[in-house]
Amino acid sequence: MTIDEFTRRLEQFEQQYPADASDTLEEGAKTMVKALRKESPGSRRKHPHKLRRSWKMKMVDRFGHQPKAEIRNSSPHYHLVERGVQNPKDPHGNPKPEWRDSLNRHKKFTENIVQEHWDDVKKGMAKEFYTKVRGHLG
């Protein structure tokens, strides 16, 4: 059996056993959230809405549709860290281009973390789904 045949069979099993596919997706999403929490930039200040602690995962599992895991960050300043600062200014409104490098060092950190861990998470999900479906094969 080649890898293409194996993936085709997994897709067929996914349609036949949607509950197992949903459980596997949820475990894979939890693994990704753990990786995001571990590698998100942290701050030394004490405040309630830290980037690391604000990762949320929600499963959307509607009847007749494929399950979907939504991972998001509920921190109010997440978008500032993720997108970076284009024209930094000091509190008096004066432009400070020398601050740009230090303020943009974590730009696109979410995308980089997901790309770094996606292959391992995907392999783990395939192995877990196979172990769950193997019981149905007989």
Summarize the structure.
By secondary structure, the protein is mostly helical.
Description:
- There is one protein chain.
- The chain has 138 residues and is mainly α.
- The protein is 54% helix and 9% strand.
- It has helices spanning 3-16, 18-39, 78-83, 100-103, 109-137, and strands at residues 55-60, 68-73.
- A two-stranded antiparallel ribbon has the order 1-2.
- β1 (55-60) and β2 form a beta hairpin.
- The protein starts with a helix and ends with a helix.
- The model has no long low-confidence stretch (mean pLDDT 86).
Q: Which key features would you list for this structure?
A:
138 residues; mainly alpha; 2 strands; 54% helix; 9% strand
Mean pLDDT: 86
Largest sheet: 2 strands, antiparallel
Q: Give the strand line-up of the largest sheet.
A: 1-2
Number of strands: 2
Strand content: 5-15%
**Helical segment tally?**
5
Oligomer: single chain
Instruction: Output the radius of gyration.
Output: 20 Å
> What's the order of the H and E elements?
HHEEHHH
User: Which stretches are low in confidence, meaning pLDDT under 50 for 5 or more residues running?
Assistant: none
Query: End-to-end distance, in Å?
Result: 18 Å
Provide the fold topology.
Layout: H1 3-16, H2 18-39, E1 55-60, E2 68-73, H3 78-83, H4 100-103, H5 109-137
Antiparallel strand pairs: 1-2
Helix pairs in contact: 2-5
